[in-house]
Each structure stands twice: as C-alpha cells, then as structure tokens.
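As a warm-up, study this chain.
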Amino acid sequence: MEKRRLGGTGMDVTVLGFGGAEIGFEKAEQATVDRLLNSALDAGLNVIDTAAGYPASEAKIGRAVSSRRKDFFLFTKCGNSLSSEEQYWTADVLTAAIDRSLKDLRTDHVDLVQLHSCSTEILRKSEAIQALQRAREAGKTRFIGYSGDNANALFAIESGAFDTLQTSVSIADQSSIDTTLPKARAKGMGVIVKRPIANAAWKTGAKPANAYHHTYWERLQELKYDFLAGDLEAAISIALRFTLAQSGVGTAIVGTKHPERWKANAKLLEAGPLDAGAAAKIRARWKEVARADWVGQT
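Now compare it with the structure written out below.
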C-alpha cells in the first residue's frame, strides 16, 4: 500500500489507517479485534488511531497488537470531546488520561497524542497544550496534534504548537479544503483525515438509523453525485480516492469492526489515484450546492 510522509514528523504512513471508534462504541468482541487488527497489519497497514473517549477501544487494541508495537504507528487522543468545561481539560486530568492510555495500550509511548476536539477557548488558555508538550518531553509521545474542525482547528494550526491536524474531509465535507488544509500545509503539519468516506451515509438508499450520519446523508441528497447511484464499492472507491487526492493529506482513518472490511477498503485503492477531472467535478458540484453552514463535522 502507498505510504506518504506525515508532514514534518518523518513518519511514513500508509494512506489508509485504522480508526478505533467503532470497535469501542459498537462493543466489538476481543477475538474480533484480534483478528481484524492482526490481519490488517499483515496486509500492510501501519497506522492505528484511537482515543481515550472510545469505550474500551484502547484496551482492546493493547490486548490485540501490543506485541507487534514496532509494526505500526500508534495515535491516540485525550480530553472530553463532548465538553468544553475547563474541568475536563486541566493539565492534571489530561496527564492522567495519557498515563491511562499508555497502560491500556500496553506501551511506554505512543507516536502521537492529540487533543480531542477542544474549543478555541480551551486552546487559548494553553494549559491543555502545555500538558501535551510535557508528555512529549517525558517521552510518553513522540508528537502532539489537534483533532477538530473549523475555527477551533484554525486556531490550533495558527498556534504553531502542534505537529499534526486530524480533521474531516470527504465528498460531503469539503470546507476544510479551502480553509484549514492550506494553512496546515504551510505550517508543515501532517494531516490525518477522519470520516473520509462520509460514513458511506448513502449506502442503503435510506436515511441512516445512526444520527451521527444524518448531516452527511442530508447533504448528499442535495449534492446528488452521479456516481453514488451506481455500484456501492465503486462509489466508495471514488469517495475515498477523492479524499486522498487532496493536497497535504497523509492518511485517511477508516473505522470498522468487521475483520474483512479493512482489506476490502485497501482493495478500493487498486484503481489508482482519482482522475483529476473526476476530482474537479466533485469539487465543482460542492461549490455549486454547498451552503455557508455546511461546515466541517466533528
């Protein structure tokens, strides 16, 4: 699988990474996680991204692949992504969270710790940033990053404190292509993309049951991309390759609890880079249809 340099970190990451949210929130069995992650590593994946806020995800990953720690880059996140209350973002709370993450992941360090979508106000106070910087100084992480979108991501980029940005980019979420991605590139930051296939929100032809996918479903009803009406795997391939075609993107994080899904996703890239004309058509359609409130989804 293709590898790309992740900004100034020096890490050469596979263009597809594994996201640990689904195995946590959907309560995947440990045996399933063992099979899923080991088969993905065997097939060439070298990025695993998770978070303290994904229920039991770190512990499941630690049990599954800690013995193969040298085979992959390990990213996690700290902080309560659902709250901007200061109590969740103090140095003591974040330091304790990082220590728990290392214990659960069964490692003495990770390659990247990211603040999990905290607000500009929290970033401006700088305590949270300093907690990550101290973790880096202590050897608990090699690099530090920010995961988030829109104005918060812009502030994080402009602070100059972070090595990486994790943000949403997809056929249904393109505002960052014009706002945060160029600034992150200019700062030499590595870019990690979350939700790169827009949760395949169109796949059943009906509004998804999961409310987390509704915004993308509603946008796609208006965007009406021609390719979404065809074969599902071909459509996912186009969507994924569109995201990877954006300048500066290092890796796209895709979550699943199905052991064969990662290999299937990897196979979608065998068609090669998305044709520039096809990518331009998707961008043009977005610019034609997207409203001002179609901002990045965290």
